[in-house]
Amino acid sequence: MYDNGGTGWAARSTVVDIAGKTGTAQVVGRRLQGVDSWKYNDHAWFVAFAPVNKPKITVAVLVEHGGHGGSVAAPIAKRIIEEYFKEHPKVLKTKGSGEINPT
Questions:
Q1: Which residue from 6, 76, 85, 93 lies 20 to 30 Å from 24 (Cα-Cα)?
Q2: 3-class SS letters over the chain
Q3: What is the pTM of this model?
Q4: Distance from chain centroid for Cα 26
């Protein structure tokens, strides 16, 4: 989440360290897509857990026909996780300090 080049960059949080993986599920081959046909857009995925060092929550987000997981689903997962920790502040004692390399 902390490398500008990673696809999950949009899930980076100042509230809690989040680990996650983006995904995109192709609906049809690109050659079959119409110019204005949203129903052929790829599905956007993002799965995540937090905090990194001692997970308390796991989230999976699927946005049908959303496009790319990193730009569409990751921000949704980030918001869900941040809201969870706002509602459960005692669960989050300190931010982790480990580094995770993007895949």
A1: 85
A2: CCCCCCCCHHHCCCCCCCEEEEEEECCCCHHHCCCCCHHHCCEEEEEEEECCCCCCEEEEEEECCCCCHHHHHHHHHHHHHHHHHHHCCCCCCCCCCCCCCCC
A3: 0.77
A4: 18
Whole-number Å distance between alpha carbons of 69 and 67:
7
CA dist., res. 40 & res. 25, Å (int): 11
- Predicted pLDDT of residue 85: 94
Domain count, the chain: 1
Mean pLDDT, range 62-70, rounded to an integer: 91
Domain ranges, residue 28: 9-87
35 domain residue, yes or no: yes
Average pLDDT, the chain: 83
The sheet with strand 43-50 has its strands ordered as 19-25, 43-50, 57-63
